[in-house]
Amino acid sequence: xxxxxxxxxxxxxxxxxxxxxxxxxxxxxxxxxxxxxxxxxxxxxxxxxxxxxxxxxxxxxxxxxxxxxxxxxxxxxxxxxxxxxxxxxxxxxxxxxxxxxxxxxxxxxxxxxxxxxxxxxxxxxxxxxxxxxxxxxxxxxxxxxxxxxxxxxxxxxxxxxxxxxx
Length: 166
Fold this sequence. Notes:
The protein is of the alpha+beta class. The protein has helices spanning 7-14, 43-77, 106-118, 146-164; strands at residues 82-84, 92-97, 125-129, 132-138. It has four helices and four strands, in the order H-H-E-E-H-E-E-H. Strand 3 (125-129) and strand 4 form a beta hairpin. Helix 2 (43-77) packs across helix 4.
């Protein structure tokens, strides 16, 4: 439990600063007011899965997620309407929209992602990479498979196509 008269200072010290988390407001989420994100006992699921799958199982999951991220990055690189912004090194793919005669803003990215989310197949988050508004795909679920990458690419293409036809 914490008591303070200086909530703005507390927010400045403890805020989790990432574009996909959003900007803390006058009524910030408690995640921005504490020194750690452990209120939901986040270590327990990690411990359970480590006990269930062991170190080798964990390694397989991580390697598979990294391979799937690489696959998604390769597919994004071959799409005309998207631009890969950074090499895929681990499990995160960072890319942006590549639209003719249209400036890509963070607001445009957020609108695109809202339309993508409405399809109900894929959840990606907005970010900013080297000052460029972007899309962040973080592959971290132990159940993610190659078919999920195909679904993601299909959903991206359907969403971008629907936007062009409006």
